């Protein structure tokens, strides 16, 4: 059977659940079948090269398994591995003959031969591909630490043991070189990612990208000046929903796969093998969705079941089981305040209503003046949805903005928190006030200017009085309604619990704001006598935007819509009266 026919049958079997498959893997199969139908159309400049697809299968058969019962035996690719690797090499541009895919993102549970596939591709690229293109290929492997970077590198060495291909390579402790072309594979250190000095990567492998806290290595892979560059990301789901892998790559790649989302990238191969939300972890089919190799042989299934039995008995192990064995992203903060998957579900690209001339509640967290200061605007509104009693459901639109005193403090936060504060400045979430301490005058100027530009009617300015007594007094003297919101469980329990409930009910709405997301993922709670509050002492990471949000929500919760409706009615009534008078005249 031709490889193309094998993959067509495999895709159909996945879509019909003959091969247990999660939603996103099914979408990857749909994409493959859809692309085959597009061959020959003017708008689709790609063809399927059966010979090239077959060559990569043959290449792996020359390499050797390095572990387990199959150690020393030729690597015979499974159909799922062919689904990835044969598409990587089989899809070609009809004019140039170059590979269609310049980037790939494959997410799958652990122990499913990720390192084997990465290593085999790296060896093929520096030999066959470099020879065909007449280039010297620089190929790099990148993990969060040098030892992680060397996992793929070491796998290359092991796969060449007993292989007829071994004589084509010169292997030393730190580099694998292809003798004919001078191309090489080299593991990178953390410093290499920061500087990128002197590198021109024809290929870069990002291993376990969920552990990377920055995009340094990813950015390095975008700088290739070769005919057929390839950036490979193969990872398992992680426990930090604020890492680049989740908020950028996983999110974007999910949209590429989703046929109902208008996001297309013909040069990016994507496959995500994960269990679906409602799946039963005890069902073998659930395990097979996330483990396309491991859950299809007896020893692998037995080990997965053992890990599930442990996870059931020890709650602390459950998150690891879900991320590593079911490939489901989880937030793993101990005593974490927010389920970040539910929080992210509230994010929208456009607001459902026009917010102009709406009432707004403004919350402040002034913090220490050399640290972050945050403000949150909350606009409550009655939606068209009805609750069980037939009342209109109240929803809350949240805008957050933060301030930091200086570029020096910005760099200090980047180093200390290992978070991209500079990126947040560029995205407009964070402002540098260029002052020795955060300029409270600038903060209020921003708040009043923002409200004026949008016609927002300030209902209340809500402060924790710490670091803000003078400002609160001045604003009160100017005629604003100012409320103190003390940071105690007694004062904040209702707001803290209530806001989270509204998030879980999807009654909170916010536009993309990575700094707010970062703070929300950091927030942990302290409990006492059934009451909770955000625990500022339990984390060294920033939570200021969350404090400001809860501060505003405490008052927004009690917004009086009857007064708002009456004023709107009065305004319309007076306008109609004026129009009637004009017509009479």
Key phrases:
about 575 residues; alpha/beta; eight-stranded mixed β-sheet; seven-stranded mixed β-sheet; 21 helices; 19 strands; Terminase large subunit; Terminase_largesu-like; TerL_nuclease; endonuclease activity; TerL_ATPase
Terminal residue distance: 87 Å
Radius of gyration: 28 Å
Relative strand content? 15-25%
**CATH fold descriptor of the largest domain:** Rossmann fold
Describe the protein in words:
Pfam families: TerL_ATPase, TerL_nuclease. InterPro entries: P-loop_NTPase, TerL_ATPase, TerL_nuclease, Terminase_largesu-like. The protein is an alpha/beta fold and 585 residues long. The chain folds into 2 domains: 288 residues, 3-Layer(aba) Sandwich (Rossmann fold), CATH 3.40.50.300; 227 residues, Nucleotidyltransferase, domain 5. It is built from 21 helices and 19 strands. An 8-stranded mixed sheet has the order 5-6-7-4-8-9-3-10, sandwiched between helices. α1 packs across α2 and α1 packs across α4. About 2% of the residues have low confidence.
